[in-house]
Fold this sequence. Notes:
The two termini are about 25 Å apart. It is built from 9 helices and 9 strands. The chain has helices spanning about 25-30, 35-50, 80-90, 115-130, 135-155, 185-200, 230-240, 245-250, 265-270; strands at about 15-25, 55-65, 70-75, 100-110, 165-175, 205-215, 220-230, 250-255, 255-260. The chain is of the alpha+beta class. Helix 4 crosses helix 5 (about 135-155). The chain has an 8-stranded antiparallel beta barrel, surrounded by 4 helices.
Amino acid sequence: MADKRAPLLPEEGWHCLHLFYRIDFAQWQLLSAEEQRSGKIALSEIVQEIRATDQTQLLTLSIVTPKADLAFILITPDLHAANSFEKRLSLSLGAGVLEPVYSYLSLTEESEYITTPEQYGETLGREQNLKIGTPEFDTAMKTFAERMVHYRQERVFPTLPDWPVLCFYNMSKRRGEERNWYALPFDERCRLMGGHAKVGREFAGKVKQLITGSTGLDDAEWGVTLFARDTFQIKKIVYEMRFDRVSAEYADFGEFFIGIQLPLDELFQRLQL
């Protein structure tokens, strides 16, 4: 049944829900074969409906460790839709079959530490000796502007990749007495984040990142979703980031989840449903 309420849309960005479940197989076995079949059909229909919803994306995952059995990642603008879809997904296989074990709510967002045109122009002069007003400088600035338009689009209105391996964790910046990220001057934070981003760019084509903001929405400040074609690249980027000052001195990390993207029919087989 369609929700008749007016959409609850954020001023900027889309809502992002990470939903992790454990299957209560004892509860599942209590269902008749027909009830099990109906449950799988119901979940399939909900997944199709969600994916047919405008500006909405849904990933289905098998979780590798016993922390959870399966997960959904849902991105959609309307908070009512996100809330409704989450409730329906949770009950789709039958009451009590899907046991929620972890969830995370966040918003897609643009980083506050992006490089400004002025800063990039200074970098061109300092590192490449390009002078303002020269054709080479103008070409470099035009390329930078085009790259930033694409960057902002992908941060705020991302297209989730179909790469098979996915890692999710939350993180916050430290506020301790000795290390307080928010006590640093903004320019210093920008400089440090520039170095942090440089490490990430070394994994272009190997790891795609979805960074979503959750301050005031969930227990940490950001949700980090990493997509890769193999687990080695996930391990390597997280390891390399740990040596960066932003992570080494100012970051606190939550629990890590590793999943494999699977079509729903393969997910049913993997879960032995």
